[in-house]
Amino acid sequence: MQNTIIFVLLFVLTLIIATTTLYIYKINTKITNINKTLEHQYNLIVKMQSVLKNKYATNAIAENAEMIYQDLLQSLIPIMAAIDIMPRNTQEHPLWRALGGIMDEYAKNPFALEKLRRGIKLDSEVARNIDNYMRRADNFLHHLTTTEPDGLLSNTFTDGLLGQSLTFFAQAKQLATQSN
Question: How far is it, in rounded angstroms, from Cα 103 to Cα 99?
Fold first, then answer.
């Protein structure tokens, strides 16, 4: 009888140990799942933070770009008036309309380069505005090149109207200084 009681107690004790082990295993599995979930959520939060920073940076760039565009446009207006060129009649930003008008006129009439050369040579206000425009546009392109990792935006600006206008104005300025 004592052996039976010992076997029953041993069986109950083994059953309790097995149940406790199984319970601890389940709790450990749940904790592991919770850790994985928290790690996944942390990674999502980091990604969201990165996206929000990028959007904030993009918004800041857009706001700064608008100020730069307006500054460039203020330098272009007297130049366009001096060489008698009208902006494009499109729905673009006024800067791109002005640059488009200048480049369109030059494409239609190469004499526009000569008119600009004369304006630079004879009117110090035109020369000053050309210098301001070129300096600010070059600084803007340099800033884009240094801040943008893949260079897509800076290449777009360099190959687009901004880069074409810089080349056009540099040619006119060089011709004006050579003819002195």
Answer: 6
DSSP 87: P
Does the pTM surpass 0.85? The reply is no
C-alpha to C-alpha distance for 99 and 88, rounded to whole angstroms: 8
Q: How far apart are CA 117 and CA 57, in angstroms?
A: 39
* DSSP assignment of 63-86: HHHHHHHHHHHHHHHHHHHHTT-P
In angstroms, the CA 13 to CA 16 distance is: 5
Please say whether the beta carbons of 119 and 76 come within 8 A. Answer: no
Distance between the two ends of the chain, CA-based, in angstroms?
126
Contact 112, 79 (CB under 8 A): no
Q: What is the pLDDT of residues 40-86, one digit of tens each?
A: 998 888 888 877 777 776 666 667 778 888 889 999 999 999 888 89
Cα 167 off chain centre by: 24
